[in-house]
Fold these 2 entries.
Entry 1:
Amino acid sequence: MYDAIIIGAGLSGLAAGVRLAHFGRRVLILERHYAIGGLNSYYRLDGRNYDVGLHAVTNFRPKGAKTGPLPRLLRQLRLSWDDFALAEQIGSKIVFPSTALDFSNDPALLQSQIAERFPKQIDGFRRLTAELLDYDAIDTPAARASAREAVGRQISDPMLLEMLFCPIMFYGGANPHDIDFGQFSILFRSIFLEGLARPPAGIRAILKKLVRRFKELGGELRLRAGVQHLAPKSDEVRVVLDDADELSARQILSSAGWCETVRMCDAAANLSAGANAAVASNEVPGEQPADADPPSGQLSFLESVSTLDALPAELGYPQTIVFFNDSPQFHWERPQEPVDVRSGVVCSPNNFVYSDPDSAPSEGSIRLTALANFDHWNNLPDAEYAAAKQHWYERLVASAVRFIADFRAHVVAVDVFTPKTIRRFTGHDNGAVYGAPKKRFDGTTALKNVFLCGTDQGLVGIIGAMTSGILMANRLLSGGSRSAESS
Amino acid sequence: MTAAEIRSAILEILSDILPDEDLSELKDDVPLREQIELDSMDFLDIVMELRKRYRIQIPEDDYIHMATLGGTVEYLEPRMKDVAAHG
């Protein structure tokens, strides 16, 4: 029997695995897919390396910094700054119809841009920044307030408010229109105050580092091992795999998503969940009760990678990331159309400050992401799928080049993934990138030996995902029994 | 373990958790948090490392005794007197 079985070899599951294995637990990570990473993954196609998922690592802190989520995470995983060797962004931009705001990893740039373009708003923006800094994600995980209301108290210009929401929703908005102010604070700080960076080799550098560390510590990882269902007993959970193999563990830590995990549990266990609900009694008002049926998320993406015959900067695209929106109002909702091309995120992996030029990506590429409708892509007949991807890729690029240099003549290869792809790799209902609209900030479920980590535990981004795994591993370590000690 | 052995065991844990901190000047009677960057997760890490390495369980109510290096040694001394120092 394992001390813990972790479902999902994404960033949260791997970080949790490292932490548990470090403290002597017997840990197995199960990954349904043949590749690790989940939402943030990588693959090779026609001789090229591709990344899926977030465009950049947020929460950048320079080498030697001791405070903030990144240094804390490195300490908890016993990694050094050089293990990720993050290259900082060059500079990014939020572009709306009549105005734009530049920002970089120096928060003074965004402040001066707002002072120049929205002079009446700068005092409110400064007050908002101060308010956000007081918020600590670890000490107060759930602020339980509408970010639109809280930000609206300081920012009265509706377009500036939409401009600030655009990057934040793209990088972590699980709900349509609005976001919890606590989560807004975490994202605002991670994007605008700490900033964006990238490991020179992309997400694979981080994932491989975590896997290596996990295995060095004695952890086991099984790929192509999907969980069919969980049968919780009093002191253990029986885990039945898709191939009918059976395993057992004292505790389960699932990154599969909240509703997805609840569904894995035996119907009989769900019936008795009400009786066990007292275990997870530290309910926060407004938070979903642990034994309720949590709703699924609805927001998914179409993502594309265009490989170019030149570097983006040579083609007139010097920015790291551009968030564009073609009207004063930003719409963060499940689109009626297959893809919502009105708004999107453009990112070039080339446009980071690589200290070693040889470590920079050799080919130019531009990634482009926009909201998409899961049902449309999921119901599309196989025969029409490839053509639809090409059609909507072209429409999305045509929309984006209204705001950035037209790179279309330089495209030598394209890969596109849809909400259906995201569903397949993350297991999230509806390919919901940021998971369920309701979060379980304490990671508990109605079952005393089943816990959640990852996006439905409420932390987002690459650093947030790993921090979620660490927090939940620490919870298991401080509470649960341990075979090595009891035997 | 003697008080001196416990002190060096704690310093070893601190240097594993905080590899970038200079611990050579650490004062025994000044709160650790005033001398080095140590947040609540790091503090919990010290407790967890003590449990892993020496099988010492420290109840949460006793964390208050561990604010300084000297206080921690004093608190642990009776609890670790039968623990063998790591070779």
Note: Chain B has a mean pLDDT of 92.
Entry 2:
Amino acid sequence: MLNVHLILFLAFGAVCVAGAVNLLAQTHPINSALSLIAVMAALAGEYLLLGAEFVAAVQVIVYAGAIMVLFVFVIMLLNAGVEEHTQGSRVAILFGIPGVLLGSILVAWVVLQHSGTESVPAGALKGDPVTIGQLLFHQFLLPFEITSVLILIAIMGAVVLASKPPTSPATAPARKVD
Amino acid sequence: MVPLSYYLVLSGFLFACGVTGFLIKRNIITIFMSIELMLNGVNLSFVAFAAHWHSLAGQVFVFFVMVVAAAEAAIGLAIIIAVYRTRETLNVDQVNLLKL
């Protein structure tokens, strides 16, 4: 029997890699945003392979859905155009690209060399919503409540930051900025 | 059966792409998307290690990372709108002064 798990991993991984490289290659932000959505959808597939059902669902709903809609909305709101090209440092190109290639090959080789025998079976750990929810409301109750406060502060901060400044600074009362 | 190291290499590649985009991109929105890519790479290694060590805590941490990423996206995009309103540009090379 063919190793279906490995084939699925490679397929989703190829979509991830292609999307990430395309994000770097594109000059228009809307194209980068669409390739990032492809990366996130493929990552949800990888999570399903690892048995993390809840995380995969949240990845699609929150990341690929909510957060990326926010990005696309802002890109369209600000009418972002093609990126202007500024000249980069020559030294960075001469030494940076070979250095990055060498470093990544070294890291990949070491990681593959030292943990090649241990493998993760498909659906190794069932992360269904019931189990995650019980863990979240017992062991991780305090962090969960703190994140709710964080979200509340973030909402208020976003409203304050994005709200319109007073139209005429001379007549409007001076806002204290700190 | 996929070795754990394959997941780690994929996660490292996504993180490296995020760092590269953060450094070479000039559009402030694309820089922000590179940060999201980095967070996604970290999430993948969290889930892979959770499956490897048979501990669901890793998956709960991914949930927290997503919550923080959502808060960060809301705040960051609001800051981008404020920057665009005062500077009329999204190019980070032209946003080089702290004062308005």
Note: Strands of chain A lie at 119-120.
